[in-house]
Structures are given as C-alpha cells and as structure tokens.
Amino acid sequence: MRESDKHLKLCLKHGVIEAGCDEAGRGCLAGPVFAAAVILPENFNCNELNDSKQLTLKQRNELRYVIEENALSYSVAFCNPEEIDHLNILWASVAAMHRALEGLKILPEHIIVDGNRFKPFNEIPYSCVVKGDAEYQSIAAASILAKTYRDEYMKNLHDQFPMYDWDCNKGYPTPAHKKAIRENGITVHHRKSFNLFERQLELDF
Q1: Residue 94 sits in a domain of what CATH number?
Q2: Predicted pLDDT at 163
Q3: Residues that bind a divalent metal cation, according to the entry (predicted)?
Q4: Domain range enclosing 102
C-alpha cells in the first residue's frame, strides 16, 4: 500500500473525544446513502489513510480492517431510498450520519463532518470541514467505512437484480445502469426523486 502524498491530521480539537463523520452514495441512482462515525485513539497514526475516493479497492478493504481493529468506537448506518425521496439527499445524508453517531459506544465531545452542511446532534459542538476526508484521519476513516459497507450492500443487491450491474457501478449513473433502467424499468431500490434517465449532477456537500 502506498503512503499518502499528504499526511492527515489526527483531529481538529485536541483534548476532547472527537468523532469524524462522512457519507457514501450521494450521487447514486439506486441504493441507500451510507454514513459512518469513527472515534480514533489519541495515539493513532496511519499514513495510508486518505479520502476513500483516492484509494484502490484493495487499499480501502485493508484500511477498513485497520480502522475497525484500532478505533475506540465506530458505527455505520444508512437511509434507504424511500427516506432519500422524502427528505432529499442532503438531509438524508445528515440523518444517516446522526444514526451512525447514535450507534457509537462512546459519546463524542466534538464532531467533525466532511462537507459544509450538518444539523446539530444531541447539542454536541460540531465543525464542518470541506474536503475534510483529505484533512483529518477520523473523517477519512469514516469515508472508508461508509464506502466499503455500501459497496458490500450493493454487491449483495446485485445478486437479486443482476441486470443493473450494481456489482460494478454500485448504483452510480453509468451508461450500463441507465440503459438497464430504460430497458427494465426501476426497482424499489431506485431513488424516485432523482432524474433516473439523465446524468446526475455533481452535488456539493
């Protein structure tokens, strides 16, 4: 595994229990949006941690094991397509983060979130960090867990709906996925509030 070009900082605020949060699957046409929350120990140091999108599949899977073995606490949660359609993708992503935070065995004293939008969680102070998954190890760790758990989920769904190629595209709007929608229609796992026949626009978060 190659070392990241930039070494990520452990935390934003020192001397407090800090949880990093991130999500995966916002720009997909199908499947849930997943989120993770991770609390790392004060002495944790992993040079290979980085934004999950900058890592290979092999690197993400190796780092998932490192994170789960070393984190003081971690939790992964999701919002399903029906919830996404009801809340919109931004607030469904935040709701999934709240669920992940609720699943932590340790109550954080500060939360750092990748992006620029969040809602207060249990009156715990929080900071939003744009591109935080490339700045802080706990957010990067959360991005890796959210991504690997979601990919696993979509690969399992592929066995039931092989025509949509979800084992490869994970629900993202690839040409093969959009072609399958045109030919087969949509499933209960598709997000009906999304434009399912045109390319999804990039979502700022």
Answers
A1: 3.30.420.10
A2: 96
A3: 22-23, 114
A4: 18-184
Q: Report yes or no on 10 lying in a domain.
A: no
Of 87, 106, 103, 107, nearest to 95 (Cα)? Answer: 87
Residues of each annotated binding site for a divalent metal cation:
22-23, 114
How far apart CA 188 and CA 186 sit, in angstroms, is: 7
User: Does the residue 87 lie in any domain?
Assistant: yes
| 143 and 114 Cβ atoms separated by less than 8 Å | yes
Q: Does 5 reside within a domain?
A: no
Predicted confidence (pLDDT) per residue in 100-110, tens digit: 999 999 999 99
Could you tell me the pTM of the whole model?
Answer: 0.91
Q: Supply the Cα-derived Rg of the chain in whole angstroms.
A: 17
Number of domains in the chain: 1
CA-closest candidate to residue 149, choices 69, 10, 34: 34
Residues flagged as binding site: 22-23, 114
Low-confidence ranges of the chain (pLDDT < 70): 1-6, 195-205
Distance CA 166, CA 162 (A): 7
Q: Can you give the pLDDT at residue 50?
A: 87
